[in-house]
């Protein structure tokens, strides 16, 4: 058993509390990882606020992490102690119907199908003050050590800087993949991206890499525009600068609507606007933002009759055990710029400050 620090969400809506926890050794088929770096994604804040579905408190959040394998359980062959790894919040068991389908990355071991608040044997490896603490998406990266099933880690290049490539474990891969894999953006097309957080900025990078000729970035926080432009946005607009609804503005700007729209905010109004502002016939709206658990959206179904498509994208469509090391190699070959997404670097005990910066839009 390792004693170390972890950030525990004891109850919905409360700040995280950095505590000493015990982390049990990995059981068969599991891997214990020493975390080196973790990003903060809006989904961690949604979890803390109770917006994310099927979460059992107390829980250790965090799902955008990179670290070093500390020890392995019986039967683990894919990694060994000392290996650099990314933790996979969407696992790849390699055996389920969707893992066997080359067009899907929705492993049946993913949280939306099977709760990842306990490990596959239905127990947790974390305790604090005598209480069992739950895992989040199995990976719980807001801890100095964590235990995950072996199909939720991927070995990466020993040269990878973990404080950068941790972003490949969620934000960057999600946004970039939504454009490249899910939308399959075509050269010369017009894209609109709602929300310019880590995810939305990565969508902008994906659209640019795919050869989009126009990328309209939409956010209510204009401080995000400089970075969006640096990454390839051709226009940046705030819905608050217009009297008319933003979908009307976008339809006017593009003629008949954008070829591809991406929602990377997680709000109903931006999702409805993204659907309405892609073009009437061949337009595709990609939903990336996570909507509040249990919410319902009222839209006119006739939006789809003329041919529009509405698709979701989870972790950018990547099968992560196959893709993690390729994404890391592409980063090392400077095929995309992750570093620009990093706004602040904090020591782990300041994780609440990190969440505060996220809430403040910084
Ligand atoms: P973030 O909070 O960093 O960014 C969200 C951005 O949306 C902010 O810049 C904010 O100013 C902007 N925004 C808020 N209201 C807006 C409005 N009305 N119109 C336009 N812009 C608005 O969040 P993030 O970490 O980039 O995550 C974005 C979303 O993606 C979240 O919902 C998150 O849960 C989700 N997510 C989904 C996946 C997936 O696999 N599908 C993976 C990671 C994150
Ligand atoms: Zn995330
Ligand atoms: Zn699977």
TrEMBL record:
<feature type="domain" description="Alcohol dehydrogenase-like N-terminal">
    <location>
        <begin position="28"/>
        <end position="157"/>
    </location>
</feature>
<dbReference type="InterPro" id="IPR036291">
    <property type="entry name" value="NAD(P)-bd_dom_sf"/>
</dbReference>
<keyword id="KW-0560">Oxidoreductase</keyword>
<dbReference type="GO" id="GO:0005829">
    <property type="term" value="C:cytosol"/>
</dbReference>
<comment type="similarity">
    <text>Belongs to the zinc-containing alcohol dehydrogenase family.</text>
</comment>
<keyword id="KW-0479">Metal-binding</keyword>
<keyword id="KW-0862">Zinc</keyword>
<dbReference type="InterPro" id="IPR013149">
    <property type="entry name" value="ADH-like_C"/>
</dbReference>
<dbReference type="InterPro" id="IPR002328">
    <property type="entry name" value="ADH_Zn_CS"/>
</dbReference>
<dbReference type="InterPro" id="IPR013154">
    <property type="entry name" value="ADH-like_N"/>
</dbReference>
<dbReference type="GO" id="GO:0042573">
    <property type="term" value="P:retinoic acid metabolic process"/>
</dbReference>
<dbReference type="GO" id="GO:0004745">
    <property type="term" value="F:all-trans-retinol dehydrogenase (NAD+) activity"/>
</dbReference>
<protein>
    <submittedName>
        <fullName>Alcohol dehydrogenase 1</fullName>
    </submittedName>
</protein>
<dbReference type="GO" id="GO:0008270">
    <property type="term" value="F:zinc ion binding"/>
</dbReference>
<dbReference type="Pfam" id="PF08240">
    <property type="entry name" value="ADH_N"/>
</dbReference>
<dbReference type="GO" id="GO:0042572">
    <property type="term" value="P:retinol metabolic process"/>
</dbReference>
<feature type="domain" description="Alcohol dehydrogenase-like C-terminal">
    <location>
        <begin position="198"/>
        <end position="327"/>
    </location>
</feature>
<dbReference type="Pfam" id="PF00107">
    <property type="entry name" value="ADH_zinc_N"/>
</dbReference>
<dbReference type="InterPro" id="IPR011032">
    <property type="entry name" value="GroES-like_sf"/>
</dbReference>
